[in-house]
Amino acid sequence: MVSSTVLEDNLREARRLLARAASEGAELAVLPEYFCLMGHRDSDKLQVREDLGHGPIQDFLAACAREFGLWIVGGTLPLRADSAEHVRNTSLVFSPTGERVARYDKIHLFCFDNGRERYDEARVIEAGREPVVFELPARDGRTWRIGLSVCYDLRFPELYRDLAARGADVLLVPSAFTHTTGQAHWETLLRARAVENLAWVLAPAQGGTHENGRRTWGHSMAVDPWGVVLACHASEGAGVLIASLNAQRQQQLREQLPALTHRVL
């Protein structure tokens, strides 16, 4: 997505993309970080924050999950924090019945200053603390264990080790990487997390020049447990990226290279 400063427009665009994903046979659809709003100011998140379980963004995600029969991960949305001046940057997972089954609050908060671009998420975001894995029963009868993360988390491999130790087969990384950092590190980091954990990595991203002037890297990507890029949305602009996960390939790779069982530290 290339989310704008208008919540309603972003929800309309997300619905269009979710409908397309469902029509192409997707079971799980993951929206990027900040799918609902890329404001003019960081503090704009405060104006659309919701209490857990209530609000138009959560109602939208639940309704789309029911309508399209999809598992949906709402990349991130702002939920009320302990501090009145902050929000939690939260991924919520909804089942095809519209039930909320998991919540993850982004743990690592982005900070970057190269003299031209300045970001400090801690000014308005309150960090989460707990890694989260949820189970997704697929249509073929297999149950996938899926680990949640967000954007800047990608630079902290210890989080993904924790998710793997909890049995994660799939790692989700909804993101809004800047063009500068994404061009330098995005693919390298995604492939590294896949290889280290012999896990699928699915990373939907904001990609393009936004109404607020920010430029994001995009390149939404699906990476297999051997580090092979299965699919990549290389152009800027909104779109849907489809990938199929092969459980037998993952099992074979983990048997051939049982690195996860060799951990010492």
Structure overview:
The structure is a single chain. This protein has a single domain (7-262), classed as Carbon-nitrogen hydrolase (Nitrilase/N-carbamoyl-D-aminoacid amidohydrolase). 27% of the residues lie in helices and 24% in strands. It has 6 helices and 14 strands. The protein has helices at residues 7-23, 44-47, 56-68, 157-165, 179-197, 247-256; strands at 28-30, 71-80, 87-94, 100-105, 111-113, 118-120, 133-137, 143-148, 170-172, 200-203, 207-209, 215-217, 221-223, 229-232. The strands form 4 sheets. A 6-stranded mixed beta sheet has the order 7-8-9-10-13-14, with helices on one face. Strands 1-2-3-4 form a 4-stranded mixed beta sheet. A two-stranded antiparallel sheet has the order 5-6. The longest helix has 19 residues, at 179-197. The model has no long low-confidence stretch (mean pLDDT 98).
Which keywords apply here?
UPF0012_CS, hydrolase activity, acting on carbon-nitrogen (but not peptide) bonds, in linear amides, 6 helices, six-stranded mixed sheet, 265 residues, four-stranded mixed sheet, alpha+beta, single chain, Nitrilase/N-carbamoyl-D-aminoacid amidohydrolase
